[in-house]
Design a protein that fits this description.
By secondary structure, the protein is of the alpha+beta class. 28% of the residues lie in helices and 33% in strands.
Length: 215
């Protein structure tokens, strides 16, 4: 029986859906991101709001995980999580991170780099209150990234929290939002013959400089 490894080298895809030209792209990377995110949502790609978050620990080991974008504006990109998780601990020691969106069906990737800060408590409170009840209970029940004996630990914790707070669990003090403040963006559009389009935006003297990168 053959293994997946036998066919990996032969896997090929020709990227021919679209192009990304300097004259057609926005001068502001946030506007370009909004355009592509809107198109991903309209195209009904699976989880267009999912993004990979990369952080680096004090021992310089990088780690990645998938989180969900919950907002964006001129200040940056926002998501919410447990501050005591591995990513939270790594951000506390090194407040720089990278985000990546991969919209496979559109043959597009967006990469964003910058400094990360916590959002203010009022913003975290407002988002937490909008979450489904089971998600609010789960934020209390899960000691995220810690070793546990089994799933029964989570189930027991959730039952205790549900009994204690009923329908109104408050936001845990260890849970809230982060905002990545971009200083670099990159937009990648797959093209034929592996001659992909890559446009990078980077801050220079307070303004965005747009550059084409070789694929």
């Amino acid at each position: 029986m053959s293994s997946p490894n036998d066919s990996l080298a032969g896997l090929r895809k020709s990227y021919e859906r679209a192009e990304l030209d300097e004259t057609a792209s926005a001068s502001d990377p946030l506007k370009q991101f909004e355009r592509w995110l809107t198109e991903a949502i309209d195209a009904k790609v699976p989880e267009p709001n999912a993004m990979t978050l990369a952080t680096v620990a004090g021992d310089l080991r990088p780690s990645t995980r998938i989180v969900l974008i919950k907002g964006y504006d001129a200040r940056g990109i926002v998501w919410f999580t447990n501050y005591q998780s591995r990513k939270g601990q790594e951000l506390a020691g090194n407040p720089f991170a990278a985000l990546q969106f991969h919209w496979v069906e559109l043959e597009r990737v967006v990469r964003i780099e910058g400094r990360v800060e916590k959002v203010d408590g009022a913003e975290s409170d407002a988002y937490f209150a909008s979450r489904p009840l089971d998600s609010r209970i789960g934020a209390w029940a899960s000691p995220q990234s810690e070793v546990i004996e089994g799933r029964q630990v989570l189930v027991k914790n959730a039952a205790v929290i549900a009994a204690k707070h009923l329908l109104s669990p408050p936001r845990p003090p260890h849970w809230g939002g982060y905002r990545l403040v971009p200083d670099r963006w990159e937009f990648w559009q797959g093209r034929a013959s592996r001659l992909h389009d890559r446009l990078r935006y980077r801050l220079q003297d307070g303004a965005w400089l747009r550059e084409r990168l070789a694929p």
